[in-house]
Amino acid sequence: MAVGKEIRTKIGSIKNTQKITRAMEMVAASKMRKTKEKMLATRPYSKKIGKIIKHLAYANPEYKHPFLVSRSVKRIGIIVVSSDRGLCGGLNSNLFRKLLGQLTIWDKAGFDVDVCTIGTKAYSFFSGLNKTTVIGHTSKLGDTPHLNDIIGIIKVMLDAYYTGQIDELHVVSNEFVNTMTQRPNIEQLLPIVSSELDEQLSNRHWDYIYEPDAKEVLDHLLTRYIESIVYQGLVENNACEQAARMVAMKSASDNAGNLIKELQLIYNKARQAAITQEISEIVAGAAAV
Amino acid sequence: MTMSVHVDIVSAEKEIFSGLAEMVFCPAEMGEVGITPGHAPLITKLNPGEVRVKVSNTESYPFFISGGLLEVQPHVVTILADTAIRAKDIDEASAIQAKARAEEILANKTSRVDYASAEKQLFQAIMQLRTLERFRKRGS
Fold first, then answer.
1. Which of A163, A252, B86, B118 has its CA 20 to 30 A from that of B1?
2. Could you tell me which of A220, A110, A100, A102 has the C-alpha nearest to residue A158?
């Protein structure tokens, strides 16, 4: 029957799309499991090093490391972590929107902003933006990134901080809350500020014993700290990407299902109307004879 | 009751040990250190070698670490290892292999960069084997 050929092809094409989104959903689900494991495995290290740094902020070392001293701000550096690929819901756009709000605030305050990007999406976003300068970029790190992959751009930023080119360093990435929720997060890395007060540590005047000497140990420790925070941001963002993609693809599959149902109904109605009309035509013809 | 101190050992990959101990021995850069409860605050780099956590007189846990950092607060000791393995999980065969490989590179003396990294690897392999050896000796 010639009725509703367009509707049938439409249904067929939606079914094909649904197959693709369903496959992507399953791939994302299995990748999420892996990236989440990786994220949970590296969390203790970055938590512990964060704790040490917090203690350190209360110590009173004779050697003042530049990372611990705040100075008047003229230029700000940010490291933006994003995904390489799209089709992951609002993950990247939520992050960029939050960041744009912050950028406007900095812009009003008269700060210039230098950006290092991790991931293709962030690069294409910031290279189109004329408020900021992109000074470093890396992408295509895959699902299991290595610390070595990001040491380069961290070094670019740390050198810029040492030479006084930038006066603050922030890292922007998504925080993995659970599979359904990912929270865009802007965190200040440098100078190191301690947010919570620890009564036990802040009440008295004390310092560490440094072996072999304060400069060497602190240089090593603080660089490690920055690397571990950025790395944690990266693996966390990876887990977020897979989770967001899984959710987005699931809702895409569901929407495709609804669409197919509606179209099927329209098709059935059209078909029924055509049959009824044909019968009444035959009956009318018979009556006329 | 004997005094005890909380010890956390984490590597970049996972948390290895967390719990109370009477004493911790670490291969600090300036020489081996033993940390008891109430030690003054200390931060130091660690060399590759054996970390031993003494939980009681009869019980202690040895680990191999490939270098890292040690932080001491009076009530808590934190060891940030680059990589850490329990002594009993050390793969003796691969450690011997790594040692042989490093020795071979050192014997050939190709380039300076190679030389330095090979020396480091050799040191790590030797320390790994020594940790294992000591673990066995104590065990028997």
1. B86
2. A220
Q: Map tokens 């070094």 to a residue.
A: A155
Cis-peptide, bond into residue B62, ω within 30° of zero: no
Cβ partners under 8 Å of residue A51, min gap 6:
B78
**A221 in contact with B, Cβ within 8 Å:** yes
Task: Indicate the SS3 state at residue A279.
Answer: helix
Going by C-alpha positions, the residue among B48, B50, B11, B4 that lies closest to residue B29 is B48
A58 in B contact zone (CB under 8 Å)? no
Q: Which residues of A touch B83 (CB under 8 A)?
A: none
pLDDT digits (tens, 9 = 90+) for B13-72: 788 899 999 999 999 988 899 999 988 889 999 988 889 999 888 888 889 998 889 999
Would you kindly state where each structural domain of chain B is located, as residue ranges?
Answer: 5-87, 90-139
Identify the H or E element spanning A168: strand A168-176
pLDDT tens digits, residue range A119-171? Answer: 999 999 998 887 888 888 988 888 888 888 888 889 999 999 999 899 999 99
Q: Chain B interface, mutation test: which of A203, A211, A230, most B Cβ atoms within 10 Å? A: A211
Ordered by where they begin, the domains of chain A are 5-25+247-288 (1.10.287.80), 30-244 (3.40.1380.10)
Residue A263: pLDDT band (50, 70, 90) is very high
Of residues A41, A52, A59, nearest to B78 (C-beta): A52
User: Measured between CB atoms, does A45 come within 8 Å of chain B?
Assistant: yes
Pick the CATH number of B5-87 from 3.30.450.40, 2.60.15.10, 2.60.40.1180, 3.40.630.30: 2.60.15.10
Most confident of A137-151, A221-235, A244-258, B58-72: A244-258
Residue range A190-204: mean pLDDT, rounded = 67
- B29 to chain A, minimum CA–CA distance in Å? 7
